Fold this sequence. Notes:
This protein has 187 residues and is of the alpha+beta class. The protein contains five helices and eight strands, in the order ββαααβββαβαββ. An eight-stranded mixed sheet has the order 1-2-3-4-5-6-8-7, sandwiched between helices. Helix 4 (112-126) links the parallel strand 5 (96-103) and strand 6 (132-138). The chain is globular, with a radius of gyration of 16 Å.
Amino acid sequence: MQPPTEVTDNSILLRQYQQSDIPMIVEAVRESGHELKPWVSWYHENYSEVDVISWIKTLPEAWAKGASYDYVITDATDGSYLGGCGINHIRWTYRFANIGYWVRTTRTQQGIAGRAVLLLARLAFEYLGLVRVEIVVAVGNKASQRVAQKVGAVQEGILRNRMVVGENIYDAVMHSLIPQDLGMQAS
């Protein structure tokens, strides 16, 4: 079953990307470049609308094929752009996936990423029938590790040379959530 295209906890709203989001995304990425650069492969110094347009074009097909489900994170009250998140690297045979997230610099440390992770995990378990979601974070990315810890994800260990970002190779901390962690039954 497909997940909904929009979900909220009344504080944040996750929804599918739209063409009208492009200028807000570029602004947020440029604002957050210093924090994004070490940890994501898609960021570069000249990030522009061209980058967003080409990426957004891939999303409907990925969604339709069940390859990934990407969402804009917005403020549920005023609609302002807060960041992005998604369920990706889905392994249907084994019923698990990865959850990724980022929040623009001016809105970090407000619980936004944690709320997005919990909404995504519920979608993964309730709608996709997954039994596990993983949060894989570079060892040096302390902010993302705190998000995983705050939502109750279990730290399972260090994976050597697990992340490649540009020319950098990082060890990564593996965290996981299963339905029971959220008080749900595994399906």
